[in-house]
TrEMBL record:
Protein's UniProt name: Ig-like domain-containing protein
Disordered as annotated region, ranges: 151-171
Compositionally skewed regions (Polar residues) per UniProt: 151-160
Sequence ranges assigned to domain Ig-like in this UniProt record: 10-104
PROSITE patterns the record matches: IG_LIKE
InterPro entries attached to this UniProt entry: Ig-like_dom (IPR007110), Ig-like_dom_sf (IPR036179), Ig-like_fold (IPR013783), Ig_sub (IPR003599)
Highest taxon in the source lineage: Eukaryota
Length: 171
């Protein structure tokens, strides 16, 4: 067990920090959690996120709705991930790292079409799937309307105070 009572040795317990590795696909949005539970309330300025990338080096994340969103529990959502978003993300409270993520972006698994024929095939597949969705939606709406009509007809032939259904015309 190591203890640094004076706080003079930064990173002494770096091995104790929760570190997670994530492989994400290009264009995906990811959530990085930073669950900090302390007996005192934490102000938003106490929690910061930092990114270490090959291109930009180390920098503090600035929240903006098109790219970086802070969650209510001090987590970070990275929108529309691309190659520049790869690297290490640290959630810090004050100057201390609370948790760390190493993000790898797999740009090859889900890359944009490069040739016109590839684009046309993807577009055609998408249109086909969309047509199937529209047909399924129309079928569902038609069945819902039939059920509503049956309920209306059965409610017209009965009275709310009826205890049993009349099966004989002589009753």
């Amino acid at each position: 067990l190591l203890q640094d009572v004076t706080g003079s040795t930064p990173g002494l317990c770096d091995a104790c920090i929760a570190k997670k590795k994530m492989v994400v696909t290009w264009g995906q949005s990811i959530h990085l959690g930073c669950a900090v539970k302390l007996p005192r309330p934490i102000s938003l300025k106490d929690i910061t996120w930092h990114h270490y990338s090959k291109d930009k080096g180390k920098y503090q994340i600035r929240y903006r709705p098109d790219k970086y969103i802070e969650t209510s529990e001090h987590g970070l959502v990275v929108m529309n991930v691309n190659e520049a978003d790869a690297g290490r993300y640290d959630c810090k409270m004050g100057g201390d790292i609370v948790c760390s993520y190493n993000i790898t972006v797999d740009a090859h698994r889900c890359s944009a079409p490069a040739r016109t024929n590839d684009f046309q095939k993807v577009y055609s597949d998408w249109c086909h799937e969309f047509e199937k969705y529209k047909l399924a939606m129309k079928t569902w709406e038609r069945k819902q309307a039939q059920c509503a009509n049956r309920n209306n007809i059965s409610q017209q032939n009965s009275h709310p105070n009826d205890i049993y259904a009349r099966s004989s015309p002589f009753v």
